[in-house]
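Give me structure tokens for this 608-residue protein.
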Amino acid sequence: MRLGVLDVGSNTVHLLLLDVYPGSRPEPYASHKLALRLVQYLDADGNISDAGRDALTAFVVEARDFAVDNRAEDFLAFATSAIREAGNGAQVLDHVQSRSGVTLTELAGDQEAAVTFFAVRRWFGWGAGTVLDLDIGGGSFEMALGDNALPTVATSVPLGAGRLTRTFVAGDVATPKEMKALRKHVRQELRPAVDRVRAAGEPTCVAGTSKTFRSLARICGAAPYEMGPYVPRTLHLEDLRLWTRRMEAMSPEERAELPGVSAARARQILAGAVVAESAMDAYGVESIRICPWALREGLILRRLDQLSSHSDVRTVDPRHLQGAAPEPYRPHVALSTSSLYPLGVPETFEAAVELGYDSVEVLVTHERMSQLTHQLQDLVQRHQLPISTIHAPTLLLTQQVWGKSWTKIQMAAALTEQVGAEVVVVHPPFRWQRRYAANFVEGVRVVSQATGVKISVENMYPWRVRGRDTVVYAPHYSPLGLDYDWVTWDFSHAATARMDSLAAIRELGPRLGHVHLTDGSGETTADEHLLPGHGVQPVAESLEFLASTRWQGIIGVEVSTRRSKNADERTQWLAESLEFARRHTSRSDGAPSAGGPDGTEGADGSRG
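Here you go.
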């Protein structure tokens, strides 16, 4: 499908056409933009003049026609601070709609910050931990911080580069008095907003988004953007201080000669540098990572999620977003292909769609379809249902799949990216895999950081050998106490290991990256994978706890249905498992269901 996204900013109105498919990376098709500089059309009362209104309307009509001529099938249009803060912004939006038929969605400042954060989180991945995103626009400066898909706190302050330039710099070259007043104003405006953001936690990743930060990074020596978006770029405070002082003495024409600075933005880049420097000082950071994705990409990703999934939890609706956690809380529940074994991946997709699951978790096995990117992408597009998780072939029975141990994990990470999934699940090494086990904890982290893919290590259990419990996994079957960035918690494995899942989940805290929803009796050394609520594990209580924390991971239903009498009973069990997940994450007083299977599996890691 071809999607058109129209972005009305303070400086530029930009239409981007992309070819988008659920489970695949958006591919840019065409671009059409105008350096309208809408802020220049503001009068003394803060209203957009008739000339500005008409120029905007004319380009929106032009953009609409461009999208139609290029066979766009869907169209998103949004406006930020230039319209939001104009005294007659609502009237301008009505005028545009009546003349063009295009409804511009007006984003509030905290909504803008939250949607941008959503894109930044997707770019850097879960391995980035707690992210602080800074975004300097023409009219406002957005900040957002959080460790989930959406920020814990998001805020906007009127410190846009264009606004500050108009207010504080009268001529082409700023005077020392003007610079002193500008810096003082920025510090005063920033202080209370920064205090609110910092109260929500300390970031492990600080990112800068949008054109101002990209230009500043390029001025300070970052790689040219002709080299593509995947080249890491960093803005260092020491370099920024130096270049801010240099730009103070430059005219706009001289600044336009700097790398990464367009003539349209040359006058305001100095004010943007002051805001960036002041913000880095206020947060106490020496460098920030430049993210090529920002607000536009956040809205694109939101639309892709809507196309890919029936689940509201994976979408961001900017009309309702308040800059905090999403509401109401609804977990993302995936159906694992192992739940339909010995049936395959196609049958899992069919069952997931029929029952209303949000996605599919693919366990990579000897089944060729589970290994092939193009076949998995075909299933995603055919069923309009995403793959959320790739389970690497690290089980005992899949040791022959994809060769050596680290190759398995690397190929699983690559497959995760290719099909648009979010997480890789891996088992710890067996003790006889000594070289693999020797640096497993750090090795997983290295692969995760190199690929940008969240790799989550699953809890396992002891094996019974000659009547004695034997630890066959290294460093250990329990991830507790080990320095994994992300952990997958399996309730059946916990039952076999006689561990308390609720206590473990509480201990893991933000390191809990994924859940396998199942259960176990605790009376056998077998890995049973009972339906949730049919064993002894505190599954309901654990889900209720996760709901209370608004946990944003994926719940993968991984139950054994091999003992079902027929297809109807198998479907009933899978429906019950989904209902259990929904019920115990929507209220805190739910009781476990009664009745169902008590099938068992062997203690060979065959379930996942």
